[in-house]
Amino acid sequence: MKKYLLIIFAACAVNQLHGQSPVIIQKDAEIASMVAEVSADSMKTNIARLVSFGTRNTLSSTTNPQRGIGAARNWILNRFKSFATASGGRFTARFDTSTYKPDGKRIDSTVVLTNVVGTLKGTDPNDRRVFVISGHMDNMRSNVMDRTGIAPGANDDGSGTAAVMECARIMSRHKFPATIIFVAVCGEEQGLLGAGFMAANAKRDKWQIEAVLNNDIMGSNNSNETNIINNTRVRVFSEGLSAFELTEQKAAAIRAMGLENDGPSRQLARYVKEVGERYVDNLEVVMIYRPDRFLRGGDHLPYQQQGYAAVRITEMNENFNHQHQDVRMENGVQYGDLPEFMDYEYLRKNTAMNLSNLANLAKSPLAPQDVSIAVVALSNSTELSWKAPGGKVAGYYVLMRETTSSVWQKKIFTADTSIKLPYSKDNYFFAVQSVSAAGNEGLPVVPTVSRKR
């Protein structure tokens, strides 16, 4: 709470000088109500069901009705379909399939790979934005090719899959201007295949994906080796810059303005931290300045490679005794990704953090257009301007942070499409975001340079 009070007071000080309205950051009552519905018991039940399939290895049986990846994906699809009635027809569910041939690496026979996709259609026909939440239903033992042995996969990634399902259960009963996609992907352990397939198709079909929240290993609170136990912090991984279409000219401009930490995914991570901590008590979202864990990868990476903003959400302290391990007792240590090592209250908080972000994004207005910072003469003030995006926009937040800060520090409201601030562009970064009448802000847009008088 102290953080947000600082933002409010700083904004008021600026606004008193320039006649702008003070920023009062409030929770959206509808979002707060949805957050309160997130149930640890609901997710515990769903994870128990996922574990009951014995294994969810991508190469496991697709025809056995009780065991294997086929049974698991059928159950997830049926759960998604059960949400459709309360949505008034706006929520639909389907399989999205592709066929992969043996690759000599992680696929030794032809496999039909199937993602389960739930779509909550936006209510505004002019709003083409899509927001994605993802978790992978597949799992593995010590050997990724072992398709028959017991593999519970409670945390990796039963936790992410349960989070996706819980968000779908709650959000399908509400209306949003933009579209939200809930996806349980397959083939993650075989090389991010399901996410790669979906991201490539989204690019081909010109989906306007604005943000991807990938949840992978987010439901346990302790680490091996260090024995740290903490369920009050969660990590969000993001790349600083996107290599997608990064031309030499664009790279030169980024270097000149010092924007190495302001790529789309890093902006999304800042947003996830601010909104998540606003709605979820006793949870700190820790930004990690890496695309993923050290030399590792996840299902958000294929989206980044297609030019989309995407982040990975993962528990603070991973326990490798319970990850990619055969279930066994060895030297008094229990190995295996078993349900008893889950912290369902921690999973509830992390899921609520996802839900609050998805809802705030999907309720936000379209982004301001042609945001620019004037550079026509040497000056210790900063002039920003932009164009209205169309649709319902109550106004705009102008964001500021010192160049050494990882997060936005000040938030200034204006109903205009330009503003002059008594702060030097030498010392601060700026961005602009649209805001709705209910206070739902969109993703920040970093200004380009304008040399027009």
Automatic annotation (TrEMBL):
<dbReference type="InterPro" id="IPR007484">
    <property type="entry name" value="Peptidase_M28"/>
</dbReference>
<dbReference type="Pfam" id="PF04389">
    <property type="entry name" value="Peptidase_M28"/>
</dbReference>
<dbReference type="InterPro" id="IPR036116">
    <property type="entry name" value="FN3_sf"/>
</dbReference>
<keyword id="KW-0645">Protease</keyword>
<dbReference type="InterPro" id="IPR045175">
    <property type="entry name" value="M28_fam"/>
</dbReference>
<dbReference type="InterPro" id="IPR013783">
    <property type="entry name" value="Ig-like_fold"/>
</dbReference>
<keyword id="KW-0482">Metalloprotease</keyword>
<keyword id="KW-0964">Secreted</keyword>
<dbReference type="Pfam" id="PF00041">
    <property type="entry name" value="fn3"/>
</dbReference>
<feature type="domain" description="Fibronectin type-III">
    <location>
        <begin position="367"/>
        <end position="453"/>
    </location>
</feature>
<dbReference type="InterPro" id="IPR003961">
    <property type="entry name" value="FN3_dom"/>
</dbReference>
<keyword id="KW-0378">Hydrolase</keyword>
<protein>
    <submittedName>
        <fullName>M28 family metallopeptidase</fullName>
    </submittedName>
</protein>
